[in-house]
Amino acid sequence: MTSILPEGQSSFERGLAVMMCIAARGEVNIVDIAEEVGVPASTVYRYVKTLRGLSLIEEHRGSYTPGWRLLELSGQHLTHTRLAELGVSVLESIVEGTAETAVLTVRSGLNAICLRQVVSPNPLRYAFEINQLLPLHAGAGQRVLLAHAPDSVIAKVLADRLARFTDKTLTRQDLIQQLTHIRQSGQAVSHGELNPGAVAISRPVFSGGEIICSLTVAGPQTRCSSNAWAHQASQALRTAATQLANAVELPRGKAS
């Protein structure tokens, strides 16, 4: 890969290039940053240490993602904060209507993040961790975000190795077909793609003409396999998505 920096650039410009690489990729490791920016990995380590200290980036298990200050500068922090504030009551309405776990997920680069969730009252239930990084290609909520992401993001995800989490994780060809189906039908359904035995239905939430998050309801196959449950869940998600979109009311260009 050709360096994004021409020769003779200052230390300040190299630091900005490192930050821009992380912002554009969403999640990236030291080796890939060094290759893209065109500087030694030891140099990248020095820059990411400074950027972490300023809360411009965060480190997760050896990979780097945009921090809250960088999200704030790009407008994403405002969007996510607003969604976090409004999301819980909307998720509670989904749980009340379905008795299953409801999740609000946003996209950050080439990953999805569980921003908020309200868990099912049932002892047997499925749940994520808040701020957990999730793959865009596996799971209903994540796939909704991918289906409505920019073409460049979709191309990068499809070009990468698609990790298989269960024997029901979609293949690349199936994923391409599903992305088209999601855009046409307005929702995604998954069966055990990320967690064995889990069933999930998800819908996108739009504001200002852009997707800002996905809303998902998920539960065990033993309770969530009937057509009646699927219809009930879809209705609850449709109502919740409309309520959240109306509450956020973001101007065009401010969505994450």
UniProtKB/TrEMBL annotation:
- Domain named HTH iclR-type: residues: 9-68
Which GO BP terms apply?
A: negative regulation of DNA-templated transcription
Q: Which domain of life is it from?
A: Bacteria
Q: Which residues form the IclR-ED domain?
A: 69-250
Q: Does the keyword Lipoprotein apply?
A: no
A GO molecular-function annotation: DNA-binding transcription factor activity
Q: Which UniProt keywords apply?
A: DNA-binding, Transcription, Transcription regulation
Q: Name one Pfam family in it.
A: IclR_C
Q: Which PROSITE patterns match?
A: HTH_ICLR (PS51077), ICLR_ED (PS51078)
Q: Which InterPro entries match?
A: ArsR-like_HTH (IPR011991), GAF-like_dom_sf (IPR029016), HTH_MetabolicPath_Reg (IPR050707), Tscrpt_reg_IclR_C (IPR014757), Tscrpt_reg_IclR_N (IPR005471), WH-like_DNA-bd_sf (IPR036388), WH_DNA-bd_sf (IPR036390)
Per its UniProt record, what PANTHER family does this chain match?
HELIX-TURN-HELIX TRANSCRIPTIONAL REGULATOR, ICLR FAMILY, HTH-TYPE TRANSCRIPTIONAL REPRESSOR ALLR
What is the protein's given name?
IclR family transcriptional regulator
What organism does the record attribute this protein to? Arthrobacter terrae
